[in-house]
Amino acid sequence: MGSSLREKVVVVTGAGGGLGRAVALRMAAEGASVVVNDVGAALDGSGSDAGPAQSVVTEIEAAGGTAVANTDSVAGWDSARSIVATAVDTFGRIDAVVNNAGIVRDRMFFTMTEQEWRSVIDVHLHGSFFVSRAASEHFKAQRSGAYVHMTSTSGLIGNIGQANYAAAKLGIVGLSRIIAGDMERYGVRSNCIAPFAWSRMTASIPTDTPEQKDRVEKLKRMEPEKVAPLAAYLVSPVSDVTGQIFSVRANEVYLMSQHRPVRTMHRDGGWDVEAIADDLIPALRPSFTPLQVTTDVVSWDPV
Ligand code: NAI
User: Fold this and answer.
1) Which of 70, 154, 160, 235 is the most exposed place for a label (fewest CB within 10 A)?
2) Is the predicted pLDDT of residue 9 greater than 80, yes or no?
3) Which pLDDT score, from 0 to 100, does residue 221 have?
4) Confidence of residue 205 (pLDDT cuts 50, 70, 90)
């Protein structure tokens, strides 16, 4: 057991399984009291089950740690407030939030329904805002606090059939960046992690082609436990890091780039369509971002 989070209180959303469970166990092993939040939903967000959150609490307690279960949804303003209230009511304070709860409703963009769009945005983007916002009142008053938000290379790089999920996950990157700026004056930090981990979420990736099958076999080697130490570091008082995006894949940790101008061209008197076609685009084209998916960019096996 470490002690980097001794006397700290950490909320981990969606912690009944997968990455959230691994993060909650690590936080507790580092000495934190943990609110294990999970509605116990199916992968597509349907249903609820108090079992997963409670069973992770039991695991933490069996290992000598301190935790309490909460089964409220991150996706509502009031229910998110009650997740944060559980931390304050049970442990007297809140020091960190890990926005990890998530669902997937994959569909090609051109057939995606309103419900598939809204439900994914609700849990990821609205949920991350609601829980963060509820905690911000405590963080501001005590002039300390830290956020970790789980984003995805689906948004950062690209993936097929995840318009809802990618939009939500890039939205979370924007949310994190602005939280970091707005709350810097209160000593509050905010960072993102784009995890690679074998979980029921990655198990939903289609395996229709040999390439997809091969990809999934590699994904199985990426243990959720490998992501947890970075999450623990980022919320711990030893860290001064804020406004960054990391990725973790087995034993690799990546620092991801963030959008900045890559090239600029000036034209006296402004641009017209012809000049854009003839001068601007040929000048910029060598710097265009190719239409790639994550596996094109991170093409090597997990190490
Ligand atoms: P998971 O499906 O095992 O865990 C997500 C948890 O969130 C579930 O236990 C579910 O019950 C809970 N949940 C769903 N809706 C909720 C709500 N409204 N309120 C509270 N809890 C809710 O998935 P996994 O893989 O552990 O994913 C965790 C996070 O990491 C997600 O945000 C996911 O998008 C992200 N991520 C995962 C990747 C991976 O490789 N596994 C890749 C990129 C991102």
Assistant:
1) 160
2) yes
3) 85
4) confident
Residue whose CA is at the smallest distance from ligand 1 atom 3: 18
pLDDT digits 0-9 by tens, 63-116: 999 999 999 999 999 999 999 999 999 999 999 999 999 999 999 999 999 999
Residue 302 maps to a domain: no
Pocket test for ligand 1, best of 23, 120, 199, 220 (most atoms within 8 A of CB): 199
Q: What DSSP designation does 107 have? A: B
Number of domains in the chain: 1
Dist CA 223 CA 271 (whole Å): 51
Percent of the chain beyond pLDDT 70?
A: 100
Question: Does 294 sit in the ligand 1 pocket, CB within 6 Å?
Answer: no
CATH number of 41's domain? 3.40.50.720
Nearest residue to 44 via CA among 105, 102, 101: 105
Cα–Cα distance measured from residue 147 to residue 145, given in angstroms and rounded to the nearest whole number: 7
Pocket test of ligand 1: the residue of 12, 13, 19 to mutate, having most ligand atoms within 8 Å of its CB, is 19
Cα of 201 from ligand 1 centre, angstroms: 7
**What average pLDDT does this structure show over 34-59?**
96
Answer yes or no: 165 catalytic. yes
3-state helix vs strand vs coil in the chain, percent to 5 = 45, 15, 40
Q: Quick check: is 17 in a domain?
A: yes
